[in-house]
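Late entry, adenosine-5'-triphosphate complex.
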Amino acid sequence: MSALIEARGLTIHRPGSAETVLRDVDFRIDPQEIVTVVGPNGSGKSSLVRALLGHMPLAAGHVARRPGLRIGYVPQRVQIDTAMPMTVRRFLSLPRRINDAEARTALERTGVHGIDRRQLAQLSGGQFQRVLLARALLHRPHLLVLDEPTQGLDQPGIVAFYQLIADLRRDTGAAVLMVSHDLLVVMRASDRVVCLNGHVCCEGTPEHVSTAPAYRALFGAEAQGALALYRHHHDHAHDDGCLADDGRGHAARTHHA
Ligand SMILES: Nc1ncnc2c1ncn2[C@@H]1O[C@H](COP(=O)(O)OP(=O)(O)OP(=O)(O)O)[C@@H](O)[C@H]1O
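Prediction complete; structure with ligand written out below:
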């Protein structure tokens, strides 16, 4: 199969009930693609991701993963017991032991080199996300799966994180499947966007999704902003690099749309 993961007719029920969380969803992700799943709270984004990974039972449909597919997964929530001291270095060796060189390379790649002796509990939100990403990269995944990777980051942190994702895709060739709420930035970072609300409302290139009535109905004013920003990025070139430099999507929109 050419897709890394391909799903057809996925229907998922809320665990322990017959209530439908996702209905008749088709999905695929190809090598080196960046695909982002957007949708309101409770729309089934995390459930879709878990089903694609085989972590959730299906009520109907099927999922095919390419044989031998290596996946690096960063879940939405990672429980860290702050009462139990653990260094970054030790965390990277769980569950599979790695050597110092591998740890160093992974941390360098995600922009947090030199923090291997630090305690996890002492890291900032942004540093912790990058450590999680470093751990996901250790086993040279064909596919990185990131569920809400920028939760808790400020706007410049979010922009920097998406830049890192784009760099990682370029450098490692890994495809990226992301769940995200950061509409403005996601529109620039993705090859394809899937808009979910219990089913696939619309999907396609960021520009296509931005203009889809279903997407606008779900996200309202924020959707307009995403479109403005996307058009701003693609209609013309200029050298002030406003979003990348100052991290303010709104400023870009106000001044250049
Ligand atoms: N383990 C679970 N037990 C019971 N209900 C669940 C469980 N996991 C998900 N659900 C329900 O399934 C629905 C979809 O949840 P899901 O986490 O997939 O949505 P989401 O789009 O990722 O939401 P959010 O943006 O808030 O993270 C919700 O109504 C949620 O309450």
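The beta strands are 5-13, 20-29, 34-38, 60-65, 71-74, 143-147, 175-179, 192-196, 200-204. Will revisit in the morning.
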